[in-house]
Amino acid sequence: MTPELKQELQLVKLRGVLDPKRHYKAEDSRGLPKYFQVGTVVGGPADFYSGRLTKREQKASLASELLADSSLSAYRKRKYLEIQDQKQAGGKGFFKKKQKKRKPSWAHI
């Protein structure tokens, strides 16, 4: 098992994180599968214009294809910034908001 193949398998296992609009069935195994197959998708003549990637969009691996996708990178960046905002919350403004939440609704001025 090569490191590249291991990386591809990990990406397939973590595909639920990549797209917020798609939901997958839960994995029942923790480790890498014992038996698996790797192949190349060969497009038919019917989806020549609609369902295929151009030569420029085709990459050597699934990982490089996902890194090159602009919509996915925008989603990753947005989620990263959201997490950073949550983790770095602090200071005077954060404390004031917390105190305001603790007060009963009739006590707000």
Q: What average pLDDT do the residues reach?
A: 80
Number of strands: 0
Helix/strand-derived class?
Answer: mainly alpha
Radius of gyration over alpha carbons? Answer: 22 Å
Strand-residue proportion: under 5%
How far apart are the first and last residues' alpha carbons, in Å? 65 Å
Query: What sequence of helices (H) and strands (E) makes up the elements?
Result: HHHHH
Global shape: elongated
Helix content percent band:
40-55%
Low-confidence stretches: none
The description of the largest β-sheet is: none
- How many helices? The count is 5
GO molecular function, one term: RNA binding
Organism: Ceratopteris richardii (Triangle waterfern)
Main location: nucleus
Domain Fcf2 pre-rRNA processing C-terminal: 1-79
Characterization of the model:
- The chain is mainly α.
- The model has no long low-confidence stretch (mean pLDDT 80).
- Keywords: Nucleus.
- Pfam families: Fcf2.
- InterPro entries: Fcf2/DNTTIP2, Fcf2_C.
- This is Fcf2 pre-rRNA processing C-terminal domain-containing protein.
Summary?
One of its GO terms (cellular component) is nucleolus. With 109 residues, this protein is mainly alpha-helical.
Question: How are the elements arranged and paired?
Answer:
Blueprint: H1 3-13, H2 15-18, H3 62-68, H4 70-87, H5 91-102
Q: Which features would summarize this protein structure in a list?
A:
single chain, 109 residues, mainly alpha
